[in-house]
Specification:
By secondary structure, the chain is α/β, with parallel strands linked by helices. About 35% of the residues lie in helices and about 20% in strands. The termini are close together.
Length: about 260
């Protein structure tokens, strides 16, 4: 845990919506980490990117009181009763808009955007008191790893201003293989996740950007890239030379790797 004013960036696997009610090992690990961070220095806010908000181009939530959006179906009723009443921050949102414009990525402001489950579910574990302002940014459609890396890099200066930057996605995300009853991690899930960890540890950004060609079972781990791209947002936000500090390597349902890690120099 850093003791300086420069905050780390964070990648979180948000798993299935039931992660809100079934925290496994990852939920408590996030809670412990969030408590240590909050105790070490004040937080002005959180800027989070989730694949459950995809837009034609960059977009930023400017909502002062974003509602909790239960953007899923077919789950137990208690899940729909959960609320995460964190405030928004129009002032922080406009800082984000200004930084993106300065980086040549002009973004649209969205004053009605709610918090989707890719944001509020992991934040329920990370900051359960919901007392840190949250601003969501959209994942632009058709952007790849290099563009999302640049998006995170454009906002990296916010880490010096008391803002925690989070990419919320999934280390593996092949829902066609979700069977619910599996207890042992699928071998391909472990192979892919540990290849990514090794590349992060050695700072091999070029290999990570080329993960679909180089990482084992990449296409099986991610039939589409949307849930993996938030990793590049966190990697860009962390800046050059960042190394990972793992909070969790849990695998749920045999195929959902719940890797979560902080990135700092």
């Amino acid at each position: 845990m850093p003791t300086t004013s420069l905050l780390p960036a964070l990648f979180i696997s948000h798993g299935a919506p039931l992660f809100a009610l079934e925290p496994g090992e990852t939920g408590p690990a996030l809670t412990r980490w969030g408590a240590r961070l909050a105790a070490s220095q004040p937080l002005r806010g959180i800027v989070i990117l989730s694949p459950h908000w995809m837009a034609r181009g960059p977009a930023v939530m400017t909502n002062a009181a974003p509602p909790t959006w239960h953007d899923f179906g077919g789950f137990p009723p208690p899940l729909y009763e959960l609320q995460y009443p964190a405030p928004g921050s129009p002032a922080l949102a406009h800082e984000v808009l200004d930084l993106l414009a300065a980086a040549g990525m002009p973004a649209q402001a969205d004053a009605s955007r709610p918090l989707d489950h890719g944001a509020w579910v992991p934040l329920m574990h990370l900051f359960p008191e919901a007392n840190v302002p949250v601003v969501q940014v959209a994942l632009p459609v058709r952007w790849g790893p290099a563009e999302v890396l640049a998006l995170g890099w454009a906002l990296s200066g916010l880490r010096e201003r008391g803002v925690l930057l989070i990419g919320s996605g999934s280390m593996t995300h092949n829902l066609s293989e979700f069977f619910g009853g599996a207890r042992e991690p699928a071998p391909y899930v472990v192979a892919f996740s540990r290849w990514i960890e090794a590349a992060l540890a050695r700072g091999d950004v070029a290999a990570l950007l080329d993960y679909r060609a180089q990482a084992p079972h990449a296409a099986r781990a991610h039939p589409s890239e949307d849930h993996f791209l938030p990793l590049f947002f966190a990697l860009g936000a962390a800046g050059e030379g960042a190394s990972p500090d793992y909070l969790s390597r849990e695998v749920m349902y045999g195929m959902l790797a719940m890797d979560a890690f902080a990135l700092s120099c």
